[in-house]
Amino acid sequence: MIDVSDDDVVARRDTLDGRFLLFTKTDRPDTHPLPWTGIMVDTGGDGFGLSLALNPTTRPDPWWAITLLSVAQARAQQEDARRMGPLIQDQLSHLGRALAHERSRVGQDAQPITFTAGHEPSPYAWTEVHRIPHRLPLSPDPLGKEDGITQEQLLLILDQTFADAKAPLHQRRLVTLIRDHVRTALDTERRRLQRLRP
Question: pLDDT for 69-78, tens place per residue?
Answer without folding.
Answer: 999 999 999 9
